[in-house]
Structure formats: C-alpha cells, structure tokens
Amino acid sequence: MPKVSRAIVAVRILTAVSVALAVMCAVLAWAWSAAREEAACWRTAAEFQLQPEGGCPGG
Questions:
Q1: CA neighbor of 42 nearest in space, from 51, 33, 34
Q2: Which residue, among 44, 29, 23, 25, has the nearest Cα to 57 in the 3D structure?
Q3: What is the pLDDT of residues 11-38, one digit of tens each?
Q4: Are the beta carbons of 44 and 52 closer than 8 angstroms?
Q5: Are 31 and 50 in contact (CB under 8 A)?
Q6: Sign of the torsion angle spanned by Cα atoms 13, 18, 24, 26
Q7: Residues 57 and 34 sit within 8 Å (Cβ to Cβ)
Q8: Alpha-carbon distance 28 to 14, whole Å?
Q9: What is the dihedral of CA 21, 27, 30, 35, to 10 degrees?
C-alpha cells in the first residue's frame, strides 16, 4: 500500500469540510426561504385581517 503524503490528506480533509459547509449552507438557505414565506403569509393575514386560502404554512 503506497504511503499517502500529509499534504494529500490535508487537502482531502479540507475538501470534505468544504463540502459539508456547502451542504449546510444550502439547507439553511432553503429553511430561511421557507420561514420567510411563512412569515410573509402571516404578516399579510394580520395586516389585512384575511384568512388565506388553505391557511398559512405551519399553522
């Protein structure tokens, strides 16, 4: 089995960390977008005293 240099191991670790952070950012962006849409729905319902068709998400 060939010996892997420390530089290659470091690059692989940094690559894995970068991929993990990218996935986390994508999930957080999706969650933020969903929460923002829900807040906008509730805000509109409260301001205009309306009942949206099908209700607001999360409620």
A1: 51
A2: 44
A3: 999 999 999 999 999 999 999 999 999 9
A4: yes
A5: no
A6: negative
A7: yes
A8: 21
A9: -110
Of 41, 43, 40, 34, the closest CA to residue 55 belongs to 41
Please tell me the pTM assigned to this model.
0.70
10 Å Cβ neighbour count for 50?
10
Per the CB < 8 A criterion, the answer to whether 38 and 21 are in contact is no
Cβ–Cβ < 8 Å for 57, 37: yes
Closest alpha carbon to 38 in 58, 10, 54, 20: 58
Tally DSSP H helices, then E strands, for the chain.
Answer: 1, 0
